[in-house]
């Protein structure tokens, strides 16, 4: 990705994409201690708008707080940096990646002189699980890897090191011919996908696991609000994998994945094996909101 035109915001400076480099002894590269966000901006009638920017920035700062990482910039500066990065790259729609990490000032777990660096990159990124997945649904597999336990990793932090677990699960699912993994928590209950929250629908009620060992997804919160607004009942509770097998519909949510139907888990067809009507309804509402076509929720959009 590094050989291309464009600009990256690096510690307060907008620099050419190819020059935004770090040293091989970067501490976070060695020990996986960093925090990041994944944010999207969409084209709207009023121009490019970043979806739920303050919520993403807040989660980034929460993640840093959990890891006791002292960020050099405040939220306003970061919000401005994010807007500037989208503008500088002339993007109508974008995937935006802010990341904060420790530099190369020291090595070893005991290093105490590390500086925290902050970078914001943005680029054009289509449907993460494919347009075909958005329309027809994806096939997923229960992972042999367990999701983080609350006292092993900090599940409320979107921390770089947490994603070893996600990547192991995803690689396994892909190697087995599936599109994505479903991770169970340490007690065997449904947690989330490698980078998505999960929902299921049965008898017109929407279920989603509580957030004990899943990331507090901003898309998840958005879908809960939109569902309640149209009178759908949402129930947050512990779910088992066989509750997913017998669901009428299931779908993943995430900034990258947006709203992606799930048509199969572990070789069991979910519902009719196509995008279900409630999933389609919520997906449409979601795309209307992010593109500024919904009459409400304009406050979720930050025009750049
Ligand atoms: N769970 C995990 C593990 C994730 O990486 C993500 C993506 N950030 C999500 C859930 C969904 O979160 P959001 O809707 O805020 O993108």
From TrEMBL:
Pathway: Amino-acid biosynthesis; L-leucine biosynthesis; L-leucine from 3-methyl-2-oxobutanoate: step 4/4; Amino-acid biosynthesis; L-isoleucine biosynthesis; L-isoleucine from 2-oxobutanoate: step 4/4; Amino-acid biosynthesis; L-valine biosynthesis; L-valine from pyruvate: step 4/4
Enzyme Commission number, as recorded: 2.6.1.42
PROSITE patterns xref list: AA_TRANSFER_CLASS_4 (PS00770)
SUPFAM superfamilies: D-aminoacid aminotransferase-like PLP-dependent enzymes
Gene Ontology CC: cytosol
Ion transport listed as a keyword: no
CDD domains from the UniProt entry: BCAT_beta_family (cd01557)
InterPro entries attached to this UniProt entry: Aminotrans_IV, Aminotrans_IV_CS, Aminotransferase-like, B_amino_transI, BCAT-like_C, BCAT-like_N, BCAT_family, Class-IV_PLP-Dep_Aminotrnsfr
Keyword Transferase: yes
UniProt keyword list: Amino-acid biosynthesis, Aminotransferase, Branched-chain amino acid biosynthesis, Pyridoxal phosphate, Transferase
Coiled coil, from the record: none
Catalysed conversion reaction: L-leucine + 2-oxoglutarate = 4-methyl-2-oxopentanoate + L-glutamate; L-isoleucine + 2-oxoglutarate = (S)-3-methyl-2-oxopentanoate + L-glutamate; L-valine + 2-oxoglutarate = 3-methyl-2-oxobutanoate + L-glutamate
BP GO annotations: aspartate biosynthetic process; isoleucine biosynthetic process; L-leucine biosynthetic process; L-valine biosynthetic process
GO MF, one example: L-leucine-2-oxoglutarate transaminase activity
Cofactor(s), by name: pyridoxal 5'-phosphate
Superkingdom as given in the UniProt entry: Bacteria
Family statement: Belongs to the class-IV pyridoxal-phosphate-dependent aminotransferase family.
Role played: Acts on leucine, isoleucine and valine.
PANTHER family assigned to the protein according to its UniProt record, in alphabetical order: AMINO-ACID AMINOTRANSFERASE, AMINODEOXYCHORISMATE LYASE
Protein name: Branched-chain-amino-acid aminotransferase
Organism: Thioploca ingrica
Lineage of the species this protein comes from: Bacteria, Pseudomonadati, Pseudomonadota, Gammaproteobacteria, Thiotrichales
């Amino acid at each position: 990705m590094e050989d291309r035109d464009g600009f990256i915001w690096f510690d307060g400076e907008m620099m050419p994409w190819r020059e935004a480099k770090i040293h091989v002894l970067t501490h976070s590269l060695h020990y996986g201690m960093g925090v990041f966000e994944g944010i999207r901006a969409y084209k709207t009638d009023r121009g490019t708008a970043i979806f739920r920017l303050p919520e993403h920035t807040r989660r980034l700062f929460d993640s840093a707080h959990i890891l006791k990482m002292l960020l050099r910039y405040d939220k306003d500066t970061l919000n401005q940096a994010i807007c500037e990065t989208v503008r500088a790259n002339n993007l109508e729609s974008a995937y935006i990646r802010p990341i904060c990490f420790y530099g190369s000032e020291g090595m070893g777990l005991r290093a105490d002189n590390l500086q925290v660096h902050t970078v914001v990159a943005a680029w054009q990124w289509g449907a993460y699980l494919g347009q075909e997945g958005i329309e027809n649904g994806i096939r997923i597999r229960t992972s042999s890897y367990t999701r983080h336990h609350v006292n092993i990793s900090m599940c409320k932090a979107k921390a770089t090191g947490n994603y070893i677990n996600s990547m192991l699960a995803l690689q396994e699912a892909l190697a087995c011919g599936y599109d994505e993994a479903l991770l169970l928590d340490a007690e065997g209950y449904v947690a989330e996908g490698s980078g998505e929250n999960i929902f299921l629908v049965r008898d017109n009620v929407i279920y989603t696991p509580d957030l004990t060992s899943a990331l507090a997804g901003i898309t998840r919160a958005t879908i809960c609000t939109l569902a309640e607004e149209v009178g759908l009942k949402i129930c947050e509770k512990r779910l088992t994998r066989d509750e997913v097998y017998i669901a009428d519909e299931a779908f993943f949510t995430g900034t990258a994945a947006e709203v992606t139907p799930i048509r199969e888990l572990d070789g069991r067809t979910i519902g009719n094996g196509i995008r279900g009507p409630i999933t389609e309804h919520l997906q449409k509402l979601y795309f209307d909101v992010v593109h500024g076509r919904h009459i409400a929720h304009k406050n979720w959009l930050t025009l750049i």
